[in-house]
Amino acid sequence: MSDRYDAIIIGGGPGGSTAALVMARAGLKVCVLEKDKHPRFHIGESFLPRATPLLQELGLEKVVRALPHVNKTGAEFGFGNDMKTMKFDFTIGLVPGTRIFNIARADYDKVLFDQAGLAGAELRENTAVREIVSLKQDDVIVRTGAGDIRGRILIDASGHGTVVGRHLGLRQNFDEPELQKVAYFEHFDDVERLHNDEDGHPGIFMADEGWFWMIGIDAKRTSVGFVTRPEFVKTLNIPPHQLLQWAISRCPVVRHRMRNATGPSTNRVLADFSYTCKPYAGDGYFLVGDAACFLDPIFSTGVTLAMVGGKKAAELSINVLSGKLAPAKAQKQYIKLILGSTGVFWGLIRGYYRHSFRELFMNGTGPMQVHKAIISILAGHVFPKPKWGLRWRLWLFQFCVWGQEKFGTFVPKRPHCSLVAQSPEPLPLIDGADTMAAATAHAI
Ligand SMILES: Cc1cc2nc3c(=O)[nH]c(=O)nc-3n(C[C@H](O)[C@H](O)[C@H](O)COP(=O)(O)OP(=O)(O)OC[C@H]3O[C@@H](n4cnc5c(N)ncnc54)[C@H](O)[C@@H]3O)c2cc1C
After folding, report:
1. Domains plus CATH for the chain?
2. Relative to the CA of 43, which ligand 1 atom is closest?
3. Can you spell out the DSSP letters for 289-304?
């Protein structure tokens, strides 16, 4: 079977390209199947500091830093109705490693994809995998519009496409309503940002109905989005492509920062998350990045997790294909890495939707350096799992969240921000303000 590849990779996003790069450099015959053509828009522009050593190990830091980007040294959190926000800097974390950036994904993903090609991977764009015909170690067949492709191992990095997850019936949404989310987002020019070193701080602004992000991705453009619950949206009579305008018009902090902004009056939409596709590895396959599970994007974890997972899946596949490692052992190691690293974020994400968590988080400091540990976790120092010094402080923090909720005594109580309760104001300088005003008029 001379036409058989060692590895077939579905998806040329950060997870798939990283896996392809590592395997191609090791001399494997690799084929990447990507349904779109790069450059293509993708949301998710803010990375964790833990991605920097990874980019260095992969020899990619220079080439991606040559692209337009904004250095990120920390983050800003606030309630949507309170101009007084909380900022933190990654340098105060307990684990060293603090440099990273925000970047437009169209550029970033294309560079990673091209680097995989330069390393020797065969790249096929505009090639969607339509069906999995066979999925067994050394006998993988996937069907595309251009015919069947054979390989020895399959890496599914198809993002929300979750090709293997759907094929094997593994994809499951979470029962918890709080984890069901929909996002509305766009890029805008001339959004007010923080100054100097804080220019790249992602701004996260919280309300009862959802939360906003504002992420500077180059000197002029800022990514702005609103994440909320589908159930809440059903109570509004707003077309999905105007939901972002509706939300901005009701959030004093975001509205203020966008007072001179220009950009589209409509927005993009991404629904149907979060989910998981367990087991993350099995006979003939590894699931990488969003094809394995999708975490709520609040802490900007997705790209870093996808690249760490892509690298690990590639290294394990190399050892399996050369006979150095039994497939079952490789699968076990991979599952452990993904469970260990994502588990800690699931805990923080669940906490984030509790008001008491937000009150403590906004306080900025805590006993026994608990805040420094949380910052290190948010910097992505969680592989294969967080160090003991981070783990016990995280438990302490979670205990404090419970105590604050029950007794309200650890930090001052903070008023809620409700978008529905706010009076809407139009944004005169955004294109299509009339449309927005019409949309807000229909709001409950
Ligand atoms: C609202 C929102 C905000 C986010 N913000 C952040 C953030 O700030 N920071 C961050 O790190 N992450 C963020 N994320 C998450 C991040 O975007 C993803 O985790 C990341 O893109 C995962 O990379 P990946 O390679 O697994 O998948 P993707 O980047 O989605 O790549 C998958 C690729 O597979 C291709 N594909 C799909 N189906 C097929 C098929 N059948 N055949 C062939 N190709 C296929 C797709 O075209 C795509 O190119 C955010 C996500 C959302 C929804």
Report:
1. 5-68+104-174+274-343 (3.50.50.60), 177-271+420-441 (3.30.9.100), 354-407 (no CATH)
2. 17
3. GGGTEE--GGG--HHH
